[in-house]
Amino acid sequence: MEQNNNTNTVNLDSIDLHLLQALQTDASLSNQALAERVHVSPPTCLRRVKRLHEAGLIERQIALLSPDKLAAVLGHGLTAIVEITLDKQTEEQQQYFELRVVADSAVQQCYRTSPGPDFVLLVQVADMPAYLALAQRLFTANANVRNVKAFFSLKRAKFMPSVLLGMDKNY
Residue 118 burial (CB < 10 Å; 0-12/13-18/19+)? Predict the structure, then answer.
């Protein structure tokens, strides 16, 4: 991996890509196991992963929880995919809305989209009353929201929070 000081761009080689792929599949791997997986020495592996972090390519490492197993303890909760159309779509209005929704802990993901709605949100709340409170807090209290369309998840068939790295030619 090379970093060009003039443009802040990072050049990735196949080892870097393999490291990123392995880490986004299982970030709990020890440095030794990661080095073995990508066929480099442990010191090389450690140095490269550190540079990937420093370059900002690895934002953070988290644990993915099992909602189905936690449901027995916490309840199932409610997942909604919400389409939002703003009344005024100026850059300033879009930034204002985006800042409001991303600050709310119930909003798990936020995307600006085109064409169609201005935003698509993935929200997770405890139940329907909690969704109503969220809708009132984020959508109806803001006069710039023209349309809200919510879809409630019945079952999650796949969840793969990964970035395509170009190593799999099926994308």
Answer: buried
Q: In what order do the strands lie in the sheet with 145-152?
A: 107-112, 119-125, 78-86, 145-152
The tens digit of pLDDT for each residue in 154-170 reads: 988 888 888 988 876 54
The fold of 67-152 is: Alpha-Beta Plaits (3.30.70)
pLDDT tens-digit readout, 57-102: 999 998 888 888 888 888 888 999 999 999 999 999 999 999 999 9
CATH of 2-54, one of 1.10.10.10, 1.10.20.10, 1.20.81.30, 1.10.3720.10: 1.10.10.10
Domain ranges of the chain: 2-54, 67-152
Q: Is the pTM of this model over 0.85?
A: no
Greatest alpha-carbon pair distance for the chain in Å reads 58
